[in-house]
Structures are given as C-alpha cells and as structure tokens.
Amino acid sequence: MGPWNQDDAMIPLAAKQAAERAAQEAEKKRDKPRAWLVLSGFAKALTGVVAVGTYGAKKHAPNAWKGDGFAMEDALDAHGRHMLKFASGETLDPEHGESHLVAAAWNLLAAEEKRLTTK
C-alpha cells in the first residue's frame, strides 16, 4: 500500500499523522491557563491597577494591605466608595489621579486575595 492512508488516498499517512499531532498539541494548549490573554488584553487597565498599588505602597508600605490591619471588608468598602464616586460622575480619584474603576478593581483583587489566603 505504501505511505498512503487507505481511507483517503489523497493524503499521505505522514501528513495525516502530523495533523493529528498538531491537533493534540492544540488541545493541550487549550487546557492551560492563558495568562497572556489577560495581560495583553487588559494591559492598559492593569497598568492603572499597578499604579494604584504603587501609590498605596508609597503611602502606607509595600503590601501593608496583607496585614491584620486591613480586612477583606475594608477592601470591599473601598471598592464600593470608588464605584459610587464613578457612578456619580467623578472619573478620576483626586488623591492619586487614577480612574476610580481601576482603584475599585485593585480593591476587589485585594479582597479576593484576602479571601483566598485568610484562614
């Protein structure tokens, strides 16, 4: 028969096997977390979140929010305040100059991290 697939005489067996391997590799990739999609897709918004975190680290101390003096409820309250300010028409936080939305996002991330790490 030679190097041809008997089911489809027009496709060489090696080509069919290569296509199957490529499909298997693509399936493996689909199952992995796609961090780059988030980083590249939200690059501008995440840059704002970084700026808010940097401002907080300078104002307080790096990762001060991880301590016992900052509870998940504190982050949720701050998130709510930023959302109320945004909803009332104030786009930028006058304290640090970043969007209230990215400040709210930072606070949600802090709340989730607290939830995940607090025992």
Please describe what this structure looks like.
With 119 residues, the chain is an all-alpha fold. The chain folds into two domains: 1-32; 35-117. It has helices at 13-30, 35-41, 43-59, 72-87, 100-117. Helix 3 (43-59) crosses helix 5 (100-117) and helix 4 packs antiparallel against helix 5. The mean pLDDT is 90.
Short structural summary:
The protein is mostly helical. The protein contains 5 helices and no strands. It folds into 2 domains: 1-32; 35-117.
List strands and helices in order, with pairings.
Blueprint: H1 13-30, H2 35-41, H3 43-59, H4 72-87, H5 100-117
Helix pairs in contact: 3-5, 4-5
Features:
single chain, 119 residues, 64% helix
Output the helix-strand order: HHHHH
Class inferred from helices and paired strands: mainly alpha
Distance between the termini: 66 Å
Largest sheet: none
* Strand composition percent: under 5%
Spatial extent as radius of gyration: 25 Å
Count of alpha/pi helices: 5
- The total domain count is 2
**Overall pLDDT score:** 90
Coarse morphology: elongated
**Unreliable segments (pLDDT under 50, ≥5 consecutive)?**
none
Number of strand elements: 0
What is the helix content? 55-70%
